[in-house]
Every structure is written in structure tokens, then in C-alpha cells.
């Protein structure tokens, strides 16, 4: 099957021209470039808007392998990672271009399944696929997605706006994706796949293979008017907290008692003899949001999240000082009772500035 026949096989009749027009697509797949009209996009943004642009790449054996991801999962996650970046700015995702480098071992049907996952994610988050590029690769599959979005002019969420005295929050549990990856790797090559088929751990696998970006959470935070900084948890909570601290020039103090833990993650960590805190702080790929908010308004924002069926957890605070991240650890013998407020009698532990890093530095 030649190149353009493959592209048609992967993309034809996936999204109607009428639907794409509602997302501001004047001309989609089929020409040398797409033509976009942001002023006509039905994105729910009143008045003047700004354009957002994000890009992300996934490489076989670096980001995925046959024992960790089905073909459909690869397509879903390639787009979801970009959607999460738009969500972290408080924006609405709109248009994507998808480029693939395909080795001989990946035939047209396997690639079609990747596009099945990609388009399923696009439908879920209202993303119009408007083009891309296809080329051959000598050995490994590479999929790269660039995504546009829109946000109210001057209201985009950034990392550098945190203020001393802010409350630090996350919009969901962390560590689940890392636990899911650990489970998949532990089960690889074993005929009975111990644990991987246990319904109790299904949420861990879904967190790794089919993450759900926090677009609505980002929009609610933008509309609150009191969210000062925002980031998505792609490289680990500690790493993202460091990014906020350095960009804003202050110190972040996290309270271990307030970190939201998934019950399935804790159960699997106990079974695997692992420390769930490592997954929570350094695992990454959770795609929840972490940020800072005016402490006096945190309760109201939490209530608004609850009205939309979304979680919201205050996990620490910011304070003046040289940039850094510290953790107030669990007190010895703590049984989970209490309100999770920071115990100032406990020594703070500095959290190292590490997370997933492609170049190991």
C-alpha cells in the first residue's frame, strides 16, 4: 500500500467536514497545509482569545512497548499528552497534526489501530485532526503530535504566578500510572500475567494506557480567577512542583498526609514490596494538574469541583524563600485520622529535583 493510500486508510471519513468546521477548520486533510479560522471555532471562549500550541513525541521502546501498550493505547496517549498541556494552560484543545515514522514491522492494519485510538481520544476532547506527515523508519515507531488550543486573552495559566501563602493543590491521585507500568512490566512474558488481569488493578492499567487529561479542571481553575500557577503532572509530582517553585521564585512545602492515594495503588505497592510514595512523587504520566491558588478561596474551588464530580486536594503551601520543594513526612504511627494539616514539629525533607528525564541529567 503506497503512502497516500495508507493515509486515506488511516484517516478517511473519521471526522465530518461539518464537525471540523465547528472547530474552526476551513480546510483539513488533503492539501499541503490546513487552513484554520480560530474566530469561527465553537470553543466556548467568549471575546478575544489567544492561540496555544503544544507538541509531544512518543518513541517505541522509550515510551511504549508491546507488553505495556496495545496499538490503540499508543494513539490515545500520543494525543492525550498534548491535550494535557493545553489543559495546564486553562485552554480548550482544537486542532492536531500527526506525524508518524513507521518501520517495516508496523503494517497498515496495526497503524490503523493506532489511529483508532487517536481518533477516539480526539472525539472525547473535541480535537479536529487536520493533517500531518508520514515517513518510513528503520526500526522503531515514532509518533509526534502537535496540538493547537485557545484560551481567553490574558488569562492563560502559567507556572510563574505562584505567590507566598498560596495553597498547593492537585486535581486527582498521583502515582497510578507508574504503578500500572510497574504491574505491566512485572507481568511481561509470564503466561498467567500475575496481577495484570486482576479487576482490582484495572484502574492502574487505565491510568497508564488511557490517561484522561484534566481539561474541565483547567477551565474551572481559570474561571475561578484565583489560580495563580498551574502545571500538569507528566514527569512526576516532585518534578512539577520544582518547576513551579523555580518559575515563581519561592518554596513549596508538601504535606505527605494530604497527598491523595489510590487504594488500588497502595494495595498493589504492598503486594509488590514497593514504596507508593516513590511512584507518587517521581512516577509521572498522571496528567492531573498541580498548581497554587489563593488559600482563602481553596474551599470554594473545591466545592465547585465537587459540583462537577471532580476531585480537588490541597496538598501543601508556598512560602517565601529560595526555590525548592520540601516534604513534611507522615508522623510515626499515624493512622490516617485527622484533617491532614501540616505538623510543624516534624522535620522537613528536601525533595530532590528529579523525575523522568530523557537525557539522565
What does it look like?
There is one protein chain. The protein has 361 residues and is α+β, with helices and mostly antiparallel strands. It folds into two domains: 3-152, PurM-like, N-terminal domain (60s Ribosomal Protein L30, Chain: A, 2-Layer Sandwich); 167-350, Phosphoribosyl-aminoimidazole Synthetase, Chain A, domain 2 (Alpha-Beta Complex). 33% of the residues lie in helices and 22% in strands. The chain has eleven helices and 13 strands. The strands form three sheets. It has a seven-stranded mixed sheet. Strands 3-6-4-5 form a four-stranded mixed sheet, covered by helices on one side. Helix 5 (176-187) packs across helix 6 (202-209). The chain is globular, with a radius of gyration of 21 Å. The mean pLDDT is 91.
Low-confidence stretches: none
Order of adjacent strands in the largest pleated sheet: 8-10-7-11-9-12-13
According to CATH, the fold-level topology of the largest domain is Phosphoribosyl-aminoimidazole Synthetase, Chain A, domain 2
Cα Rg: 21 Å
CATH architecture of the largest domain: Alpha-Beta Complex
CATH superfamily of the largest domain: PurM-like C-terminal domain
Shape descriptor: globular
Structural class given helices, strands, pairing? alpha+beta
Strand content: 15-25%
Helix content: 25-40%
Q: What series of H and E elements makes up the topology? A: HHEEEHEHEEEHHHEHEHHEHEEE
User: Helical stretch count?
Assistant: 11
EC number: 2.7.4.16
Enzyme class: transferase
GO biological process, one term: thiamine diphosphate biosynthetic process
Organism: Paenibacillus pinisoli
